[in-house]
């Protein structure tokens, strides 16, 4: 299950679909490159570098798994707030790689800092500052427990730095987003912008997806870049709030990969004002745009879930607490029986009842009202009086299915997103390593 | 996905496999019958009755789902300790059936008690007592939310009572166990016996299985019968202890169907002694036999899991607590990525690492030692020095795969059982209702 990126970018059918992607723009202060270290043995891009010659403010939300990759462990080693570069590799997760994995990272960081420092000293507008290893962070995605391919990556670093570009059009963003794919079938990109005074504030986001049946058993990576100057603490608050109902709405709490990472970088090219806080109007506008961008990326991940044919939204309303709404929504969304019913286009709402019950959350089943799309299927503790199997079977043929559970117990709500569960999921995952 | 039971019992290939089943014997004081109410429209047995003319002591462990079937709700309505009969129907779960489901059960109980009372009054050795509706309990398994087929069942009650047999050989036990199957491909039966003084204490158990990917999203029913006299309180203690490492070792806590039920019945034909307690030797012998029988049935359920091709044992040892061992074991056993790797015969131990991590339990990854069968695959925070992919690929071809996770943190351990995850699971569940 390797993606031939060259083919993707050269494939006319796919490229004719370029219109489906948003038009990402250049972020001042960011340089990017994506090349092949031949980790897959087929020449596809697998190594990506994001470089900020003037540094970037930075915030991240990482996996909460009790076992983490050497890369995440590296990133955590100092509480970085200002960084110079992020390097992403695919194929190998650098998890459970022991001393070899850690030492590989040390060596790569050392080499990368040296090569970047030379580049700086040569560049016209460069700062001529030394790029220190501690200014660099990493992300990895791929197989766990295999030796980290240190030599291949180290040998590719000169090329990776050489290819850094300050100008990035839509196609280049797609190339970079494609360079970090694993089982994804297409790159995930999103763009938002807002006008602040005379300035154009841009937010560009890219992501790679994950195996979708239990959403985050495979690695999810997303990197977001903005030219607006926002300090790291504020970035952290904004990112956490945005992730809660987007990336974490396709993610069961505490049920994540060893490598999950969503990060945001501010190149500080555009000043938004002094002493910004969450209450400032300009920050609230930014927050709104960021949430929209994150939801867009999160939904693209679900749509491209392994083997996915249908997009499924599960909305739980009128719960007695947010935590209760969340538990019930994920209990339904993670049920293989619900997901296979959706794949089979079967309006088997009994499985939704089972999903609610197994959440363990107390509900009053006589109050429950369950809808599939606009159709009420169950209320008052029984099948709806206007239940219409024929209409429902028609509805289940749609590409996007909505389940709504009205608990009638309170005022809290939560919405989460998943996909159906098909033969292709088995095919992809029974043979992932080969 | 209906099973034609007649075909099963007439099929020579299958019947030639009769030897794979244990030789269940007659339980004095128990009468059984299994007939067709034509709930599936193909004449298979779907209605089963267990009748105790002299009553039976009784204990049960039911689902902990927050939504339960009308049948379980009926059984809970009084804390029954002595019962006269248990009726089991398949095809319809009688869950979320509202007033219709509840009233159906009232009507069926009334009719059944009347017919059984008439039978009593006519029988020679009968007690001539009235069989009260509150002496009856029920179990249902099948689709949720569909109207309960009250008429078909009611009309079949005379036949069901008429066909009650006091003598039951192995074949008859298989017929009865088959009468409560849904997507099971074969009946599940188990037998244990022990000599107490001059008496033969017998324990007969039957079960029906469940969709196996998240073990208890579909209904699991098991009924156990013994001729030994054990009071209901002691039965309850024994059953709870036995279930913990057997039926609940294929079951994630709080993640059950609306209808799950494991019950034990004592016909009191053989006296074991007065004032029995868990500390009595004879009770301990009984407990040992009961656990063995429950493990046997639980493993048969896994082996016959929907679409299952391989049996998977996940053992977590040297944990700091039982609860931690349990969480980690189930986190691995419920991982679709682990289950698809097993289906693909891929020794992808990285997914075991992921399963451990996502449990959220704190582990010291440098202490971890992971084995596939007898092969150490990972220790000291990295792949094993003696890792041999070729040998492991050979091992993964086996029908029964063992995963052992040694945490080296304490002295607690837990073992659970599951199966692999195949295309057939999708086929069965995408089209279950049809």
Structure commentary:
2 copies of one chain form a homodimer. With 434 residues, chain A is α+β, with helices and mostly antiparallel strands. Chain A has 13 helices and 14 strands. In chain A, a hairpin with a 2-residue loop joins strand 11 and strand 12 (382-383). In chain A, strands 1, 2, 3, 4, 5, 6, 7 and 8 form an 8-stranded mixed β-sheet that branches. Chain A has a 6-stranded mixed β-sheet with strand order 12-11-10-13-9-14. In chain A, helix 4 runs parallel beside helix 5 and helix 9 crosses helix 11. The radius of gyration of chain A is 23 Å and the shape is globular. Chain A has 2 domains: 5-303, L-amino peptidase D-ALA esterase/amidase; 311-430, ArgJ beta chain, C-terminal domain (Ubiquitin-like (UB roll), Roll). Chains A and B meet through helix 4, helix 10, helix 11, strand 12 and helix 13 of A and helix 4, helix 10, helix 11, strand 12 and helix 13 of B.
Provide tags for this entry:
homodimer, about 425 residues, L-amino peptidase D-ALA esterase/amidase, Ubiquitin-like (UB roll), 2 domains, eight-stranded mixed beta sheet, 13 helices, 14 strands, globular, disordered N terminus
Number of domains of chain A: 2
Task: Kindly state the number of beta strands of chain A.
Answer: 14
The CATH superfamily of the largest domain in chain A is known as L-amino peptidase D-ALA esterase/amidase
Order of helices and strands of chain A: HHEEHEHEHHEEEHEHEHHHEEEHEEH
Quaternary form:
homodimer
In whole angstroms, the N-to-C terminal distance of chain A is 7 Å
Largest interface: A-B, 68 and 68 residues
CATH fold label of the largest domain in chain A: L-amino peptidase D-ALA esterase/amidase
CATH architecture designation of the largest domain in chain A:
4-Layer Sandwich
Shape of chain A: globular
């Amino acid at each position: 299950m390797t993606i031939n990126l060259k083919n993707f970018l050269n494939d006319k059918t796919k490229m004719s679909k370029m219109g489906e992607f948003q038009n990402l723009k250049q972020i001042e202060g960011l340089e990017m490159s994506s090349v092949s270290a031949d980790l897959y043995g087929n020449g596809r891009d697998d190594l990506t570098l994001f470089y900020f010659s003037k540094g970037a403010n930075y915030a991240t939300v990482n996996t909460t798994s009790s076992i983490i990759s050497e890369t995440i462990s590296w990133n955590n080693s100092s509480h970085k707030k200002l960084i110079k570069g992020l390097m992403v590799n695919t194929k190998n997760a650098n998890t459970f790689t022991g001393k070899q994995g850690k030492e590989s990272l040390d060596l790569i960081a050392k080499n990368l800092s040296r090569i970047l420092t030379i580049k700086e000293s040569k560049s016209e507008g460069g700062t001529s500052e030394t790029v220190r290893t501690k200014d660099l962070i990493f992300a990895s995605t791929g197989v766990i427990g295999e030796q980290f391919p240190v030599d291949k990556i180290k040998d590719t670093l000169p090329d990776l730095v050489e290819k850094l570009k300050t100008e990035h059009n839509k196609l280049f963003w797609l190339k970079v987003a494609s360079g970090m794919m694993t089982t994804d079938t297409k790159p995930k990109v999103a763009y938002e912008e807002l006008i602040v005074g005379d300035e154009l504030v841009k937010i560009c986001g890219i992501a790679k997806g994950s195996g979708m049946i239990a959403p985050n058993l495979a690695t999810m990576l997303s990197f977001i870049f903005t030219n607006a100057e926002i300090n790291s603490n504020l970035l952290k608050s904004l990112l956490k709030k945005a992730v809660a109902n987007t990336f974490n709405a396709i993610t069961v709490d505490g049920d994540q990969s060893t490598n999950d990472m969503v990060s945001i970088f501010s190149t500080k090219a555009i000043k938004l004002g002094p002493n910004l806080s969450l209450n400032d109007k300009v920050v609230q506008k930014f927050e709104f745009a960021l949430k929209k961008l994150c939801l867009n990326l999160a939904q693209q991940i679900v749509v491209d879930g392994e083997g996915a044919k249908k997009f499924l939204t599960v909305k739980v309303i009128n719960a007695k607490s947010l935590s209760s709404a969340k538990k019930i929504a994920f209990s339904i969304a993670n049920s293989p029986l619900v997901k296979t019913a959706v794949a089979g286009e079967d309006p088997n709402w009994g499985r939704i009842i089972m999903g609610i019950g197994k959440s363990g959350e107390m509900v009053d089943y006589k109050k429950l009202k369950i809808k599939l799309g606009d159709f009420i299927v169950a209320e008052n503790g029984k099948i709806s009086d206007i239940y219409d199997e024929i209409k429902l079977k028609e509805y289940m043929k749609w590409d996007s299915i909505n389940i709504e559970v009205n608990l009638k117990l309170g005022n809290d709500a939560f919405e989460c997103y998943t996909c159906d569960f098909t033969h292709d999921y088995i095919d992809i995952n029974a043979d992932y390593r080969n």
